[in-house]
TrEMBL record:
Domain of life, source organism: Bacteria
GO cellular component, one term: cytoplasm
Gene3D superfamilies: 1.20.1050.10, Glutaredoxin
InterPro entries listed in its UniProt record: Glutathione-S-Trfase_C_sf, Glutathione_S-Trfase_N, GST_Omega/HSP26, Thioredoxin-like_sf
GST N-terminal domain ranges (all copies): 1-82
Protein's recorded name: Glutathione S-transferase
Length: 200
């Protein structure tokens, strides 16, 4: 398998965490690409019309877009249980949707303040995107006790969200506002899949 890859993408990180959890890392060839929201990479667009990472080419040549699709493909390939069972699957997917939506909002906010010219930046819009992260963390702080003992795709996504806040939005200081998530993250982040994928 071949993965179009960026070390700074939280969505790529989630795929790599899943691959490590499932024992599939040695089956994935990583091709590092530099993506940009304006200067789109034509070589990546040739295989994924969105021109985004992660993009996975399977061993039989099928091209998969979107981290959730890729993660579910890897989970099925390895006969994993990261997406739960018949009873837990829908709740896990709903949590994952909230986390992915928050990550998308943070990436958009990052582009607004790092790519758009200063005189054109819309800071109220940035604040609204950041608020999606706040309300999502409020939700998980409120159910922190129920996260103990779980190791599914939603919690890998939660680790990616918290890690991306540390990486790109250190001023957000989520640990101060979310002590239960801080305690959970301190333990969960000792997993090799989390430790080995910290963005640089």
């Amino acid at each position: 398998m071949k993965l179009y890859y960026s070390t700074s993408s939280p969505f790529v990180r989630k795929v790599m965490m899943v691959a490590e959890e499932l024992g599939l890392l040695d089956q994935i060839e990583k091709e590092t690409v530099q993506v940009h929201p304006v200067n789109r990479l034509q070589t990546l667009i040739a295989v994924n019309p969105l021109g985004q990472v992660p993009t996975l080419i399977t061993d039989d040549g099928q091209v998969l877009f979107d981290s959730r699709v890729i993660c579910e493909y890897l989970n099925e390939k390895a006969n994993g249980s990261l997406f739960g069972n018949q009873d837990s699957r829908w709740g896990i997917l709903s949590e994952l949707t909230a986390l992915d939506g928050s990550l998308s909002a943070l990436v958009a906010a990052r582009y607004e303040i790092s790519v758009r010219p200063v005189e054109l930046q819309w800071l109220a819009w940035v604040d609204a995107q950041m608020d999606k992260a706040r309300t999502t963390l409020d939700y998980f702080e409120g159910k922190a006790e129920s996260l103990e003992g779980r190791a599914d795709i939603a919690l890998l996504g939660l680790a990616c969200l918290l890690g991306y806040l540390d990486f790109r939005f250190a001023h957000f200081d989520w640990r101060k506002s979310y002590p239960k998530l801080d305690a959970w993250h301190a333990k969960f982040s000792q997993r090799p899949s989390v430790l080995n994928t910290v963005p640089v």
